[in-house]
Backbone:
């Protein structure tokens, strides 16, 4: 990581994600979300990202927190859809992670539907 300021900002962002998970997500989704956020933030802490990439990383997580809090003002915040332009800019690894997350959520939803 580049400097102390970036480290403090990264830690503050991570804490805000965990707080919103605790406040807004049911336990199974919270566990999944916390694990995903932990993995992403640790990977970024060890990365050699450019300042622009750091800003984008922080901006996307802030949008995510706003979406969970219900204060986001973008269409994808309410629909859950990822804009096509953003999907097109994902790396193969990111697309694979997104698919794993989607499958985990669908599995959990299915499991909860069957237990009702």
Residues:
């Amino acid at each position: 990581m580049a400097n102390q300021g970036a480290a403090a900002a990264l830690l503050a962002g991570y804490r805000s994600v965990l707080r919103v998970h605790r406040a807004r997500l049911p336990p199974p989704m919270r566990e999944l979300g916390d694990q995903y956020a932990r993995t992403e933030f640790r990977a970024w802490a060890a990365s050699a990202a450019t300042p622009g990439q750091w800003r984008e990383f922080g901006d996307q997580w802030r949008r995510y927190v706003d979406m969970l809090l219900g204060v986001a003002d973008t269409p994808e915040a309410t629909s859950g859809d990822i804009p096509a332009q953003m999907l097109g800019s994902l790396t193969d690894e990111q697309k694979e992670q997104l698919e794993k997350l989607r499958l985990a959520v669908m599995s959990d939803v299915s499991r909860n539907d069957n237990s009702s």
Summary: Residues 1-79 form one domain. The first helix runs from residue 4 to 24. The CA atoms of residues 92 and 98 lie 10 Å apart. The helical segments are 4-24, 27-45, 51-69, 75-79, 84-89, 92-115.
